[in-house]
Recover the amino acids of this structure.
């Protein structure tokens, strides 16, 4: 294992000098020490975030000692950048505490804010998983200032909440609107309607990620059924996520397109009976049904069965 050297963002000599100055009551030294402490805290947070993943043995792309060394050093630099300037607020609280202990008169909020801004107002925070240095240019354009004043008058929070439909309401409408089609498919296959609705919800993101054509037209394809060589109907082409040996990748695929949702559910019922007999015969149990579809190759996602079972439970909680 390659040892990670001492923190490059917080030098030992500089830290000792700051400690000495802070002990004498130097206000700027207190702020510097507090920022270094916050940097160390952020570094530990980043380290914990990196360790919250599968074991290295399960991830051949990120299991090398060289990459671990790189990630450790990069996290330290990110931590220093994030703590510099306003940081996360820990430094400000620590400064106030240390000032009280040292008997230093407290600054006004505006004076403290000005001191922090002067220390590093131009610092940019970058995503933990980007792998880019803080100076890299972003294709998304400039990040708006957190202090930017809104160009429109404030909106009453109650009115804003009322104007945005809740996720539960959206899902309930999705289930209720498609329930008649699911019940017809249940009559044709014996698979419970709630299982069918759950699969439609999983494949389409509760209707929000429905497959559409190049001009935005609906395909009414809620089940992600591809248009293979044996398909004689209409089709649309779109980008989808496929898994190859457990690795997700984007691919362009052709999917079946229908005239309406009724035709989509009818075709889905036919597909279940003709190709996924194991899942249909095990449809008395959610886990067996979901596993039967996964074993039959309905999806390449290795976690498909677990995801479908979870959505089936969600649909059942909705009373369907």
């Amino acid at each position: 294992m390659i040892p990670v050297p001492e923190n490059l963002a917080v030098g030992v000599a500089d830290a000792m000098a700051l400690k000495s100055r802070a002990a004498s009551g130097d206000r700027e030294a207190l702020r510097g020490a507090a920022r270094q402490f916050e940097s160390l805290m952020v570094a530990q947070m980043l380290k914990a975030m990196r360790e919250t993943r599968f074991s290295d043995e399960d991830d051949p792309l990120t299991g090398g000692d060289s990459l671990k060394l790189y990630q450790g050093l990069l996290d330290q630099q990110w931590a220093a950048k994030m703590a510099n300037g306003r940081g996360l607020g820990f430094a400000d609280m620590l400064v106030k505490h240390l000032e009280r202990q040292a008997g230093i008169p407290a600054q006004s909020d505006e004076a403290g804010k000005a001191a922090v801004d002067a220390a590093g107002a131009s610092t940019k925070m970058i995503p933990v998983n980007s792998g880019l240095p803080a100076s890299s240019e972003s294709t998304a354009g400039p990040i708006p200032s957190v202090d930017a004043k809104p160009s429109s008058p404030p909106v009453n929070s109650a009115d804003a909440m009322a104007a945005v439909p809740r996720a539960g309401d959206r899902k309930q409408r999705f289930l209720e609107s498609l329930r008649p089609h699911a019940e017809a498919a249940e009559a044709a296959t014996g698979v419970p309607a709630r299982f069918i609705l759950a699969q439609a919800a999983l494949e389409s993101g509760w209707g929000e990620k429905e497959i559409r054509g190049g001009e935005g037209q609906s395909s009414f394809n809620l089940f992600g059924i591809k248009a293979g060589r044996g398909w004689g109907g209409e089709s649309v082409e779109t980008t989808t996520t496929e898994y190859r040996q457990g690795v997700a990748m984007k691919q362009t695929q052709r999917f079946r397109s229908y005239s309406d949702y009724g035709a989509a559910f009818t075709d889905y019922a036919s597909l279940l009976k003709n190709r996924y007999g194991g899942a249909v015969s095990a449809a008395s149990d959610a886990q067996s049904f979901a596993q039967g579809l996964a074993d039959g190759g309905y999806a390449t996602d290795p976690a498909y069965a677990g995801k479908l079972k979870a959505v089936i439970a969600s649909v059942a909680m909705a009373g369907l």
Remarks:
- The longest strand covers residues 235-244.
